[in-house]
Request: fold
Amino acid sequence: MKLLTCHIENFGVLSGYDLRFDENLTVIFEANGFGKTTLAAFIKSMFYGMPRAVKNPAKNERKKYMPWQGGRYGGNLQFEENGKQYRIERFFGQTPRQDSFALYTLDPLTKSADYTENIGLELFQLDVESYEKSTYMPQNYDSSVFSTDMISAKLTDLAEETADIGQYEKAVALLKEKRSALMSYRGSGGKIERDRTKLRQLEEAIGEGAGIREKIEAAEHEKERLAAEIKEAENKIREIREEISRAGETELIRTARKRQQELQEETEELKASLETLLACYPRGLPREEDLTAVSDCLDQILRLEGLAETLTGEETPEPAPEKKKGSRLYLVFMFAGLPLLLAGVFCLYGHYNLPGICCFAAGAAAVLIGNFLNFKRMSRRFQELQQPKETKKALAEVQLRTWRQQSGEYQEQIEDFAVHYGLDVTPKNRADILRLRDDLHRKAQLKEQLDKKEGQLTRFQEENRQLLSQANPAGSTDLQTLKDRENTLHKERDEAFRAMTAQESRLKELQKELEALPQLEDERDFWQASYEADRKYLEILDGTIALLAKAKEKLDMDYIAPLRERFSHYIELILKEEDFPVFLNQNLEPMPEQAGEARALTSFSRGYADIISICMRFALVDALFPQTRPFMILDDPFVNLDDAHMKEALSLLRRLSGEKQVIYLVCSSSRC
Amino acid sequence: MKIIHCADIHLDAKMESSLPQQKAQERHYELLLQFERMIDYAKANEVRVVMIAGDLFDSTRLQSGTVRRVLDAIAAAREIDFLYLQGNHDEGRRLLEDFTLPDNLKLFQETWTSFTYDNVRITGAVLGRENCLDIYDSLQTDPDKINLVVLHGQTAAQAGEDRICLPRLKNRNIRYLALGHLHSYRQAPLDEEGVYCYAGCLEGRGFDECGEKGFVLLETDEKGLTSQFMPFAKRKLHDIGVDISGLDRMHGIADRMKEAAAQISSEDLVQFTLQGEVSPEADIDPAFLQKAMESFFYFVRIKDESCLHIDGAYRYDRSLKGTFIRMVLDSDKSDKEKEQMILCGLAALKGEKHKL
Reply:
């Protein structure tokens, strides 16, 4: 690329200024204040436009180059690129909105759309700052900068652009440090792993929670099953109770019938016994008074027989003392009277006067009566003892006959008795009478028992008429069996109820555990979000590290290698045989080699260093502008050189301008 | 007679606004307290019926203590009937089974259930998979009464699960179709006489539920029915977009955020969504901005949706930075990832550890 001409209508101190550029070296020799730097700024603004106004006056180019008289400012610049000539026209206002841009091709002058208003970027593939720092070597260039280890390695301001290469290691170290904090390159350390562990724990807890839901589901099913079981058991209990009720009624009927039968049988048995007894006495059983009479008869007979035997055996039978009724009656009165007397005495002694007097009077009366009776008895006895023996014998015979007669009468009475009652056997003794009496008693007993039993039977039948009137129940399960079954069902129901209560308690516990789940889930979500964000950021960090490495590699490939190559090229152009060879070290620092030893540029003269710097600048421009080789604007860069070095520098310029167009601005004839 | 129509209270539901745990718990309590406060309002204003058109609870996270407090509050308002229709988030029936329901809490079933109060007849049904298609045919209204119908679902032209087929409810003597499901108040004509209305939720829970929240107060008399939306939320949620284009310093951005939220109550929850294009060199730290704004509102969230403005200069920057940016831009990463990587790389190159 070559600059052809420029016309500055108004730009800073320059106004109506025209310049035709030499194909190789354009030397603009003007005094200070002419506007050399302004010219360089004009060329830059033609390609890149004017930046937006900024507050910092030193950096506010729009204001800085605005003409003093105000109004629009700018001009045009003609250049050649790839054999085609163009003309850029730009004018600037106070704001970018007031700026204008036009591009023409020359010969003929026609508008061109080959480039836009970003023509600088499009042509040079370089931003304005890089352009400025590479193509423009300013007057106040601080060459001491080059003497520092870092910058001297880069040689020019342009190197500052690539200086972030030096930051690469630090940047990657920072990124890796951050990356390691998230996930260490080795082992399992880092926040992500800690988050993952926490997440795993929470997931496990929530997983158990999901298990709780299943457990609740199962417990609810179990509860429902148990409830159904309880309901079924209660239904069965109800049914069995009805069955028991029915069986109870059956049992009642059966029992009633059985009891009726028993009563009937017992009645029949009593009837049979009575009939059997009565059968022995076709004319009825003797009455008690008859038996007593017969018994008395038998007694009299026995007594008379005894008396008769005694009387017969002792010749003069002692007449049997006729026992008089009341012969011993005196004893009764005596025995009754004495206690009454005593009672009367005691009562009186105890001041119970009325009963005492009564008892005493009754006692006294009884004792008196007793004594009277005894006296009478003793008188009679005494008379008997006074009768003579012969009389006694006669009397005995008479007596004997009397007795026999009486005995016969008694016997007749007994026989009449036997005939009357149709007895097979005439009672002969007390045993016979006792037997008859027993039968009589037995009959009475049987009769009584029979009446009682019949009464029972009647009452029972009346009381249980409803039961007894019902049809004979069909055969059903035994009541006890049913009751046993009911008990079993009760036990089963109670067991199910207990189990259901336990399930309910368990459900409540599980419900509590389940209710704790949302908090865990919230916590899980928090950690999940944190984990995912960290994972994402880890990817960003890894990607950044990788792309930085690639960028560095590309930068090396695109610029550093060409830089070395171009630097060698320019060094070869300018160095003489006696000069030390110079190479770029790893940090792009030009290192002259003296006696086989690489030495720092600062070890050499300033002029030598400046020349090396010029070479580095040219090499950098070549490296940075691979497609379009731009011009170089050198704004009086050799002000510090002595004459000898100046000569060498100018010689270098001439040689280099063969390689690319150079615009050399200088204010002293000594430097041109 | 006054009737309240509310819905979608979502007690115990998750707070979707990324609240810290303590504030999320506070909001849970506030939701419950707002429900109780609505009951207090009903008592004070002689409301006869409260219709809850679904999603009173969020069954998946429901705590038994919450149910107990709700039932206690309902039981304490003996003079008010609560007609509760369960929504798709109310699968807490089993939980309700464990409690003795107060007499004044009446549940709608999966078949039409009607409750009559003077000249007002309120009918509702829980829509489910089984009944959602043919339940409309069995709806019976009383032409001599003011008919209110309660349902939960999304209005639609076709019937379906969680869908309310409006065409099949037209011209059925419905004066007011009380709906639940959508969380914002919305009322529109149903037919010539009736309207359908979503009461919205009582309180917003996430920044997708911004704006006024509350319930609908209905008033009936011999002439008919009137309804009015009553804003009732304790706190509102706001999503404020803030264009930070051209701003590259935290101070300026914070000032613009304050300016954008000047009219918002300090009791509210605010999400600032940063928008616009910013330079990679801009000093933006959402955490710092959140801290700076926290003292002005109950809760602040910063959502950075701004994107990097990569000007053409980077494309021609021959430095490592420029090369890196070009490589990132040429990579197959998403735009957001590219932005993050550029910010990350530039911060590292500048040695700004705190920005990493």
Notes: Chain A is about 65% helix and 10% strand. Residues 140-163 of chain A have pLDDT under 50 and may be disordered. Residues 287-422 of chain A form one domain.
